[in-house]
Design goal:
The complex is a heterodimer of chains A (518) and B (500). Chain A has 518 residues and is α/β, with parallel strands linked by helices. A five-stranded parallel sheet of chain A has the order 11-10-9-12-13, sandwiched between helices. The chains are: A alpha/beta (518), B alpha/beta (500). β1 of chain A pairs antiparallel with β3 of chain B. Chain A: Tetramer of two alpha and two beta chains. Forms complex with the iron protein (nitrogenase component 2).
């Protein structure tokens, strides 16, 4: 018996011992297992160009896609407003999933309710669920706003949110002047970034365009402020705080729309804060008067940004700006729009990032990377790698569109380091597996699910993306701003050095290169 | 903390009743009436816990429950390792349940095993409008081509499938025939069916009956020689290796485990189970249906057991042995004896640190009752418990065999109620799920996830008990919980409450 009270063995070690190994070997006979030689043959076959071709010929099946569904993004955006409870109209299991998913990434509570529609609602519609649900949520959780979105069930049966909310108010579920913005967020259209876009647009539309007919439309009186939209972002905590710091440094009056940087980073001090921070409802309304709105992620605001532009504002969008040039562009845009000078401190921060790149570029230069993730993140990371002299060989975005693909091609073509690099829209991680076997790279950048690719193909994984379930606290540090660029650089370098050490640490065999100075 | 321990049962009862009245005040009248039926204070000697269960959740209250898809794909079918399980519908369901349940297995993932892959039909608008059956046909072909060593395929329906009128059964039959009798199982576990995960378990069980067992006669499986000691483990999902630390004990007492349902299980094991002499059932809630079916159809008796904590393990080993001859009964005693020194050492080490500590639970399946014995073996007391998706037969078992007088019972509890109960009762530990974990930790209450074992485990069997004890100790006695208040801030809320 291996187990003992002195040294308790858990799953990491317990099953390695002979007792369990023998037991598992004996279990095999009941499993009708495949011939090990056949398993080996197929395993090798999946690494081939032939398999890749069949794999890329897939038309219907998705295997390990790197995207989630719309309502997740809607919930993510909604909690970025002060005292706001996301309310998802449809089946309840979906909400359990969004909450779990967000909690596993942020290691934080995630509050959200469902209208718990079941079979009878599928037949008769979910109006009663909306009426009861809004009343219960309002009484129990005392929100300042309830932001409604939908699961695919409610969308398939065609529930009309606008009418349902109106009726609920007439029935007294919530006061007539209580803010209940809404967005239809069908899971069978787009991905979580689309849901973010729809929910945010729904909220702005609510405040700016007359609160679904219960208030006059706001008349825009331009001021000097700038609105910032972060987009769906696993690093929202670190990133939005960094953006706020930069804006404060520059003295720019601003509103962060959907600012969920506090609610996903509350302290442990004896109090559970169901709501914390967030864009105030007043600021959300007044955001209409801003001079301009900047989206940090173009593909997260494809509807929101044109909506803002229609209200007369200048709009600018970025693609998850990471690194020198992208941050330069962002800072210059801030200065141009606001008319404020760029303070010396930012120039110094920039200089430090240049300094760090200069110190370390020899280790990154010429290295090949595969990247996957949301379309903007992929773009931003690829652009940074190019300026580091690295080659973003495969850039894959399951929720990347044709337009994304074109923009990626332009980016790759713009640099000598992008030659021979390819962007893959609409593909999944099983495609990536084929790419990594047939055209190997040095490093892979992606979310937690990349660890399966790392295991199968031996490509070291640098965890940048969403979700990251198996490493802690990285979402608290920014990837944006010059400081953020430094963080990304260090993440990449750490992995490069770790791999170098791993490859040179065999005593008496390879350890002549096991250098203490790199 | 541990306010409860200083009070008499009558006082606890009165306080818990008052607490229930207090939380009900927040609701609109209609909701308060409905929720009142799900909350109670257990009365010793009653045959159940006096709560209604397995009833629709109320809209807008933040129920913790999931759906039928979660019960079928996430719980029952997902762990069957050599079959490909398609999340049929939009991308989300499969994405959120991808790899998160820790159903351990041994196999070459992506080649002959598929548990931690996310296969989905990733429905688009056109699939909703024109139906998804043609896409499903193509998907099955693509799986056959790219994953040729799969031993079968299941189709796990998401909400839209049942709403748009797809005929996945017809597709399954046709493709099965085309592939020479391949096992293809359509499962009607759309998320809107039923009131929780529970109906998904039932539907998944029925799918095994209809699409695997009912095909068996003609095939004549299994191929191994039966023995008088063949048993099947039913309702163990091998979370963190639970089924393995259970199997080892059964084999040590001379039984032969011919199938695991469904953690680290395979299609062949499912098919072989009608040859078992006894089905032993851990998670009654999720697999009693198929156990009853096998009893009726194949005459296989089944018995429930509990492998949490040494008291219940010993009781269960004897109960299982009772179905067999003296050789097995004697071996069971030898197994209990063999592990006694480990049990003694674990209790000697951890009980002094945990004695008198109070626990509140809220979990699914079997755990709201099954883990109580393990806590009691460590000198701890469960002062509140409830089921996410239990039925009355779960509450009967809880009342008759597990909970103490005056235990607070909460069925389908929601965020508001649970927070309120914990805030007022100030337990030393809360055991629940990921959605609850950080809420209570923020409040300064130690917490362990009791679905995933908080990424630890196994917790079943004697080996698992040592891990369980270690984990509860590290949760409760972590120095961090003494640091939640800044030294310059006023007295803690706990003290204020105690002074009330």
């Amino acid at each position: 018996m291996a187990q003992s009270a002195e040294h308790v063995l858990d799953h990491l070690e317990l099953f390695r011992g002979p007792e369990y190994q023998q037991m598992l070997a004996k279990k095999k006979i009941f499993e009708n297992p495949r011939d090990p030689a056949e398993v080996e043959r197929i395993k090798e076959w999946t690494k081939t160009a032939e398999y890749r071709e069949k794999n890329f010929a897939r038309e219907a099946l998705a295997v390990n896609p790197a995207k989630a569904c719309q309502p997740l993004g809607a919930v993510f955006a909604s909690v970025g407003f002060e005292g706001t409870l996301p309310f998802v109209h449809g089946s309840q299991g979906c909400v359990a999933y969004y909450r779990s998913h967000l909690s596993r990434h942020f290691k934080e509570p995630s509050s959200c309710v469902s209208s718990s529609m079941t079979e009878d609602a599928a037949v008769f519609g979910g109006l009663n669920n909306m009426i009861d649900g809004l009343a219960n949520s309002y009484n129990m959780y005392k929100p300042k706003m309830i932001a409604v979105s939908t699961t695919c069930m409610a969308e398939v049966i065609g529930d009309d949110l606008n009418a349902f909310i109106k009726t609920s108010k007439e029935k007294g579920s919530v006061p007539a002047d209580f803010d209940v913005p809404f967005a239809h967020t069908p899971a069978f259209v787009g991905s979580h970034v689309t849901g973010y876009d729809n929910a945010l647009k729904g909220i702005l539309e609510h405040f700016w365009d007359g609160k679904a007919g219960i208030a006059p439309k706001l008349e825009r009186k331009q001021n000097g402020a700038i609105n910032i939209i972060g987009g769906f972002d696993g690093y929202t905590v670190g990133n939005l705080r960094e953006i706020k710091r930069i804006l404060a440094l520059m003295g720019i009056q601003h509103t962060i729309l959907a600012d969920n940087s506090e609610v996903f980073d509350t302290p442990t001090d004896g109090e559970f804060r169901m709501y914390d921070g967030g864009t105030t409802l007043e600021d959300a309304a007044n955001a209409v008067h801003a001079k301009a709105t900047i989206s940090m992620q173009q593909w997260c605001t494809e509807k929101t940004l044109p909506f803002v532009a229609e209200h007369g504002q200048d709009v600018v969008s970025f693609n998850y700006p990471v690194g020198l040039s992208a941050t330069d562009d962002f800072i210059v845009a801030l200065s141009r729009i606001s008319g404020k000078d760029i303070p010396e401190q930012l120039a110094r921060e920039r200089g430090r990032l240049v300094d760090a790149i200069a110190d370390s570029s020899a280790h990154i230069h010429g290295k090949k990377f595969a990247i996957y993730g949301d379309p903007d993140l992929c773009y931003g990371l690829a652009a940074f790698l190019l300026e580091l002299g690295a080659e973003p060989t495969h850039v894959l975005s399951t929720n990347g569109s044709k337009a994304w693909h074109e923009k990626m091609q332009v980016l790759l073509a713009s640099s000598p380091f992008g030659q021979g690099c390819q962007a893959y829209p609409g593909r999944d991680l099983w495609h990536m597996r084929s790419l990594l076997f047939t055209e190997p790279v040095d490093f892979l950048i992606g979310n937690t699910y990349g660890k399966y690719l790392e295991r199968d193909t031996g490509t070291p994984l640098i965890r940048i993306g969403f979700p990251v379930f198996d490493r802690h606290h990285h979402h608290r540090s920014p990837l944006w701003g010059y400081q953020g660029g430094l963080n990304v650089l260090v993440k990449i370098l750490d992995k490069i050095f770790d791999e170098m050490d791993k490859k040179t640490n065999v005593l008496g065999k390879t350890d002549y290169s096991f250098d203490i100075i790199r | 903390m541990s306010l409860a321990t200083t009070q008499s049962t009558a006082e606890i009862r009165a306080r818990n009743k008052e607490l229930i009245e207090e939380v009900l005040k927040v609701y609109p009248e209609k909701t308060a009436k409905r929720r009142a039926k799900h909350l109670n204070v257990h009365q010793a000697g009653k045959s159940d816990c006096g709560v209604k269960s397995n009833i629709k959740s109320i809209p807008g209250v933040m129920t913790i429950r999931g759906c039928a898809y979660a019960g079928s794909k996430g719980v029952v079918w997902g762990p069957i390792k050599d079959m490909v399980h398609i999340s049929h519908g939009p991308v989300g369901c499969g994405q959120y349940s991808w790899g998160s349940r820790r159903n351990y297995y041994v196999g070459t993932t992506g080649i002959d095993s598929f548990v931690t892959l996310q296969f989905t039909s990733d429905f688009q608008e056109k699939d909703i409008v024109f139906g998804g059956d043609k896409k499903l046909v193509k998907i099955l072909d693509e799986i056959q081509e790219l994953f040729p060593l799969n031993n079968g395929i299941t189709i796990q329906s998401e909400c839209p499938i049942g709403l748009i009128g797809d005929d996945i059964e017809a597709v399954s039959r046709a493709k099965s025939k085309e592939y020479g009798g391949k096992t293809i199982v359509p499962v009607r576990c759309e998320g809107f069916r039923g009131v929780s995960q529970s109906l998904g378990h039932h539907i998944a069980n029925d799918a095994v009956r209809d699409w695997i067992f009912d095909k068996l006669e003609s095939d004549g499986k299994p191929t191994f020689e039966p023995t008088p000691y063949d048993v099947a483990i039913i309702g163990d999902y091998n979370i963190g290796g639970d089924a393995w630390s259970s199997r080892i004990l059964l084999e040590e007492m001379g039984l032969r485990v011919i199938a695991q349902w469904s953690g680290d299980g395979s299609l062949a094991e499912l098919e072989a189970t009608p040859k078992a002499k006894l089905n032993i059932l851990h998670c009654y809630r999720s697999m009693n249906y198929i156990s009853r079916h096998m009893e009726e159809k194949f005459g296989i008796p089944w018995c429930e057991y509990n492998f949490f904590g040494p008291s219940k393990i010993a009781e269960s080993l004897r109960k299982i042995a009772g179905y067999f001859d003296n050789k097995i009964k004697e071996s069971a005693e030898r197994v209990i004896e063999k592990y006694q020194p480990l049990v003694n050492a674990v209790i000697a080490k951890y009980r002094p640190r945990l004695e008198g500590k109070t626990v509140m639970l809220y979990v699914g399946g079997l755990r709201p009752r099954h883990v109580i014995g393990a806590y009691e073996d460590l000198g701890m007391e469960v002062i509140g418990t409830g089921y996410e998706f239990g039925h009355n037969d779960d509450y009967q078992r809880t009342a008759q065999h597990y909970v103490k007088d005056s235990t607070l019972i909460y069925d389908d509890v929601n965020g508001y109620e649970f927070e309120h109960f914990v805030e007022k009762l100030q337990p030393d530990l809360v055991g629940s799920g990921i959605k609850e974990k950080y809420v209570f930790q923020k409040m300064g209450v130690p917490f362990r996830q009791m679905h995933s074992w908080d990424y630890s485990g196994p917790y079943h069997g004697y080996d698992g008990f040592a891990i369980f004890a270690r984990d509860m100790d590290m949760a409760i006695n972590s120095p961090v919980w003494k640091k939640t208040k800044a030294p310059w801030k006023e007295a803690s809320r706990a003290k204020l409450l105690a002074a009330e």
